[in-house]
Inverse folding.
């Protein structure tokens, strides 16, 4: 057995679910899914556990008729979720694109949980992913002992999803080698997976579909061939839309991370978090928050995830070397490191930003000085 | 059937959404059914005489009715009509069937006079775009009654929002167009409006109540007149908001009272060509037509609008060399339809189509999708008006200006001199500059004189050509006066232009005295500068700005707004110069390159030197602080290694001239640049950069600074034969720029340096070989004068020593 395919733990009702370090979405939100299913009277596409409306609702949150509170799973544009769900309805595969930290995997997991009640049919794309992970492998002991037979065949998650009419997920599609990616073409266009050794084929059952995620800012990826690209509807996940959303995401994640990393207790100053998020958002958007001044954007992605790590790093600095309070000086170096990826061009971007925006801003003089110190 | 007037069933009120294709279709259907014998349309009654022109085949929408005050054409109002405007459909229906048409809104004579009293329009600002909006923008929204105002502006949009629709056309489509019973929607609309009006009234008085009352009074007045004339089936096409007000006719006396004592001005009305771009909300249109292209498509597409739209989008993408197949279109249609189902809509609309375009046709690429969006959703349809259309106000404005400024349009070429210190000449200069901006090249400036520092004089060649009238008509779509049209044109240009062009535009604004537009251009400069990563653009952009700032005073302009942006630009240049210079030099800058100077890098270096010189000169026009900031930057860059030789030499020279580089330090740097470790080509380029440049006086510097000359000399004499041949053209170019006396002086100095090398320069002394025989008599005479006692003539061999 050479296949590196993750073993498909076929369903979510494994005995140790409660004790799991990280339960699957369909386990963690089982109650919400059940309540939605109970209330949902709209037509369900074949093979779907919920109607498209209920899936949308599961992702965006709301309150049901019976008082069940559905927590929002995806904070962001409603449009994104609607296009994603509508795509799955049309039997076209869905490609979620976005910079790191834009909740691609999170969204795909919850979509699978809501549509099929199962988010575990997962293929993780890596440079070493082999074609067996997408098609099928063999149990070589049996193969040698019994010859090719259905019992000797080890189905891939996609094989299983096709046979059972469920959703399969492919993570980091562009990290897979191109020839492995192209194994998906037959699956997506013919909706069938032939097994020539046995002279049989698996025809996808109604309800089967595929959600892939890919990172569009990464280096060293294998771009999709246009033949494959054409089988997907592409949804680009945006970075958080509003300042408040992003500050909220950053501060809650920083808190969680601080706990799990067991950092000394530092009051994570909301001012500094807001400052980091402001800088990130302004540089990312190429325009200041008040919309008055344009700024250049650096080459880095400046995702929310990076903002989180800047703040976490700042807290570590403040706790171990500072006075225990998060100060501008603690985050200055981190911000500079995140912004200046390319020393020459990003350096100019950052200095221009400091001189034209930060310098004149009310209440930012400490931060400006700290950044100047780091820069020189 | 259509809503009957309560008092009179001869009246059929069709309350519409301005520029709503759904409304337009419904109006057309209602008119065909009603076969009215008179049509009343919301619009200025002054335009009644112009109705016939709508039947002209040369009249192509979008067009607009333009009303303007005769005494001040900059006070003007537009009533735009697109193909999909219900008013246009009603107009076309009537004129093609010889049905009388009356415009029934408040006369422009009142609205324009009113506007002047209520909110004087600043002269430099473009004319208000939209009396078409139910609440003209003369009065700003100073109260909280935003929703009530919105209801007046676009009541159907309010109904749509209430029903949970973001796009009013979608709502209209869903609730009106897709009903199968074929009943006229107008009674229901009127009923809904009645409720909305009550809500708005209970919310308190709106800012424009008096004006609204007057408008509706006038509509009723026209309606009464039509009834008196004995028409039997009168169709009234007006904004839905007004529909309830026309259903019942109160006493004529009350309306007459509302109309009494209104201010009045003398106005003219004509047709002008319009564009979809100006209909779009993006350019500030009050009634909120966000997607004229989409509306046009909805109105004109024969069937399957979504499919046709996506096919067109695919075609556009293919033109841009994007691989988009029919399979893409099929999938896009499917996605749009399933999105519509998911959202509970009977048919896919613009938002579904846009999302399908992004997700399928553009494979997620927002930038590509935006391209399609811009070109299709707004579109750049340009209307046309027939030749018989009355003269445009801009033509009258120009005639008036020509009379006032005593500049007669003549076909023969005539030169005039303008002294900008005189008011009349300043006005003339502004007018000519504005016309240039509008593409009317009546006057050709003599550019040569105009850039000179501190000049007050301008020379123009004037010649009027008949084509200019055509250009003026085209310019008419930008504004009603030369000034406002030029300002609008500048804004349009500013939206497109690249950075250097933009700063030139700043200068043009100043010359044309367009203070209003100048602010926007300057803001655009600032925005563009922030995102422009090419420092050469920034550097090229700075000098015109500096000039504009410095000489704005001559043209009596307060240039303080320029100050900030110049400052900002200089900051960006200072920050970016160092890295840019280092990046410009190729990685192996110490490698030998052809010394001929013909390579692309050499050209680039020459260009950079030019830019640096330009900025350097420009900082001379700015304050002391800016100057020293710039020199600091130069000093920093000069100290960098890896800067192109020519540029580095030039930087040192500039610093030296600005007394930023002491003699000793300079000698050290010069020594480094010409050291044996440097490739000869770079050293030669360095020297060229240092001494070169027009009027730089580099020659004199070498004459007087023997130490520098010594360094050059030592370097030159240390070169091998090959290397010497390589650098010779460069040096010749550098030294060739000096005046002959300078060259001679350098040669003499070099000789005086002593040592072997001096002998080499000897042969060029004086530049001319001496013909001893011809010189002999003259020398003899001179000697005789000097020493009359000497008897014998001097032998010729001693000639050399005597010199």
């Amino acid at each position: 057995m050479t296949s590196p395919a993750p073993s498909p733990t076929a369903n979510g009702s494994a005995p140790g679910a409660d004790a799991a370090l990280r339960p699957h979405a369909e386990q963690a939100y089982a109650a919400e899914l059940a309540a939605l299913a109970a209330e949902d009277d709209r037509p369900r596409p074949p093979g779907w556990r919920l109607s498209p409306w209920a899936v949308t609702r599961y992702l965006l949150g709301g309150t049901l008729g019976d008082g069940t509170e559905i927590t929002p799973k995806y904070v962001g544009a409603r449009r994104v979720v609607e296009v994603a769900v509508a795509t799955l309805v049309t039997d076209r595969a869905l490609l979620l694109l976005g910079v790191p930290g834009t909740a691609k995997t999170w969204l795909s997991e919850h979509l699978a949980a809501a549509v099929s009640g199962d988010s575990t049919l997962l293929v993780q794309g890596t440079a070493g992913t082999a074609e067996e992970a997408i098609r099928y492998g063999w149990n070589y002991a049996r193969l040698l002992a019994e010859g090719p037979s259905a019992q000797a065949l080890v189905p891939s998650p996609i094989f299983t999803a096709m046979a059972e009419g469920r959703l399969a997920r492919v993570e980091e599609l562009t990290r897979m080698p191109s020839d492995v990616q192209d194994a998906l073409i037959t699956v997506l266009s013919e909706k069938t997976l032939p097994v020539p050794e046995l002279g049989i084929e698996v025809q996808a059952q109604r309800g089967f579909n595929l959600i892939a995620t890919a990172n569009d800012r990464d280096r060293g990826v294998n771009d999709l061939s246009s033949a494959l690209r054409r089988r997907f509807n592409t949804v680009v996940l945006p970075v958080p839309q509003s300042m408040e959303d992003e500050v909220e995401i950053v501060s809650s994640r920083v808190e969680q991370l601080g706990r799990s990393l067991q950092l000394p207790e530092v009051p994570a100053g909301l001012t500094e978090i807001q400052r980091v998020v402001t800088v990130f958002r302004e540089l990312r958007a190429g325009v200041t928050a008040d919309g008055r001044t344009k700024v250049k954007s650096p080459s880095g992605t400046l995702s929310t995830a990076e903002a989180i790590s800047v703040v976490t790093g700042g807290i570590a600095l403040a706790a171990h070397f500072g006075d225990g309070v998060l100060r501008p000086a603690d985050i200055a170096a981190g911000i500079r490191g995140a912004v200046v990826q390319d020393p020459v061009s990003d350096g100019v971007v950052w200095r221009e930003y400091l001189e034209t925006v930060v310098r004149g801003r009310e209440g930012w003089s400490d931060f400006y000085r700290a950044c100047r110190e780091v820069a020189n | 059937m259509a809503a009957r007037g309560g008092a009179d069933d001869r009246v059929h009120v069709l309350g519409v959404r301005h520029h709503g294709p759904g409304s337009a279709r419904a109006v057309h259907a209602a008119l065909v059914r009603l076969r009215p014998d008179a049509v009343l349309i919301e619009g200025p009654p002054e335009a009644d005489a112009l109705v016939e022109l709508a039947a002209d085949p040369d009249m192509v929408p979008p067009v607009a009715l333009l009303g303007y005050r005769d005494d001040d054409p900059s006070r003007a109002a537009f009533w735009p009509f697109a193909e999909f405007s219900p008013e246009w459909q009603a107009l076309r229906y009537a004129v093609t069937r010889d049905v009388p048409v009356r415009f029934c809104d408040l006369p422009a004579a009142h609205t324009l006079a009113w506007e002047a009293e209520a909110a004087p329009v600043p002269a430099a600002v473009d004319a208000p775009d939209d009396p078409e909006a139910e609440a003209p923008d003369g009065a700003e929204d100073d109260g909280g009654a935003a929703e009530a105002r919105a209801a007046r502006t676009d009541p159907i949009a309010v109904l749509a929002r209430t029903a949970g629709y973001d796009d009013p056309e979608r709502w209209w489509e869903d609730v009106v167009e897709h009903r199968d019973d074929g009943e006229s929607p107008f009674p229901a609309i009127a009923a809904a409006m009645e409720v909305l009006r009550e809500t708005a009234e209970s919310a308190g008085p709106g800012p424009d109540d008096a004006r609204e009352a007057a408008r509706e009074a006038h509509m009723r007045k026209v309606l009464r007149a039509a009834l008196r004339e004995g028409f039997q089936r009168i169709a009234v096409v007006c904004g839905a908001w007004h529909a309830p007000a026309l259903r019942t006719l109160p006493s004529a006396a009350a309306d007459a009272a509302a109309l009494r004592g209104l201010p009045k001005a003398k106005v003219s009305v004509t047709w002008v060509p319009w564009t979809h771009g100006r209909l779009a909300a993006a350019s500030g249109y009050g009634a909120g037509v966000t997607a004229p292209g989409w509306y046009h498509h909805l109105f004109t597409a024969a069937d399957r609008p979504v499919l046709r739209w996506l096919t067109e989008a695919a075609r556009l993408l293919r033109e841009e060399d994007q691989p988009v197949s029919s399979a893409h279109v099929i999938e896009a249609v499917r996605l749009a339809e399933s999105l519509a189902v998911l959202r509970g809509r009977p048919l896919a609309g613009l938002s579904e189509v846009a999302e399908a375009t992004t997700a399928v046709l553009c494979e997620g690429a927002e930038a590509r999708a935006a391209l399609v969006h811009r070109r299709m959703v707004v579109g750049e349809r340009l209307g046309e008006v027939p030749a018989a259309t009355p003269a445009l106000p801009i033509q009258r404005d120009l005639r008036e200006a020509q009379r006032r400024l005593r500049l007669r349009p003549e076909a023969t070429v005539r030169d005039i001199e303008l002294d900008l210190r005189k008011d009349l000449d300043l006005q003339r200069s502004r007018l000519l500059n504005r016309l240039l901006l509008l593409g009317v090249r009546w006057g050709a400036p003599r550019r040569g004189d105009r850039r000179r520092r501190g000049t007050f004089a301008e020379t123009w060649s004037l010649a009027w050509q008949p084509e200019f009238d055509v250009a003026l008509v085209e310019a008419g779509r930008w504004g009603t006066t030369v000034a406002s049209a030029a300002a609008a044109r500048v804004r349009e240009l500013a939206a497109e232009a690249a950075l250097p062009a933009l700063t030139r535009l700043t200068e043009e604004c100043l010359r044309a005295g367009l203070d209003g537009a100048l602010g926007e251009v300057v803001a655009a400069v600032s925005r563009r500068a922030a995102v422009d990563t090419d420092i050469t653009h920034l550097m090229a952009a700075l000098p015109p700005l500096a000039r504009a700032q410095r000489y704005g005073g001559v043209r009596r302009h307060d240039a303080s707004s320029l100050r900030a942006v110049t400052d900002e630009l200089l900051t960006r240049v200072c920050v970016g110069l160092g890295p840019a210079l280092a990046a410009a030099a190729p990685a192996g800058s110490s490698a030998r390159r052809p010394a001929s100077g013909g390579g692309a890098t050499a050209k680039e270096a020459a260009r950079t030197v030019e830019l640096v010189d330009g900025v350097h000169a420009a900082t001379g026009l700015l304050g002391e602080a800016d100057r020293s900031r710039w020199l600091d930057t130069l000093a920093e860059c000069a100290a960098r290694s890896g800067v192109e030789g020519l540029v580095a030499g030039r930087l040192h020279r500039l610093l030296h001239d600005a007394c930023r580089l002491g003699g000793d330090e300079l000698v050290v740097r010069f020594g480094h640049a010409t050291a044996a470790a440097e490739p000869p080509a770079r050293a030669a380029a360095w020297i060229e950069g240092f001494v070169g440049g027009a009027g730089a006086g580099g020659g004199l510097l070498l004459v007087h600074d023997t130490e520098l000359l010594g360094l050059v000399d030592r370097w030159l004499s240390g070169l091998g034969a090959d290397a010497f041949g390589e650098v010779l053209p460069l040096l010749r170019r550098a030294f060739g720029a000096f005046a002959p006396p300078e060259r001679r002086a350098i040669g003499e100095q070099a000789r005086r340096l002593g040592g072997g090398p001096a002998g080499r320069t000897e042969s060029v002394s004086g530049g001319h070989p001496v013909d001893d025989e011809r010189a002999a008599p003259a020398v003899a005479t001179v000697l005789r004068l000097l020493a009359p006692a000497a008897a014998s003539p001097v032998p010729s061999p001693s000639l050399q020593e005597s010199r």
Notes: Residues 604-762 of chain B form one domain.
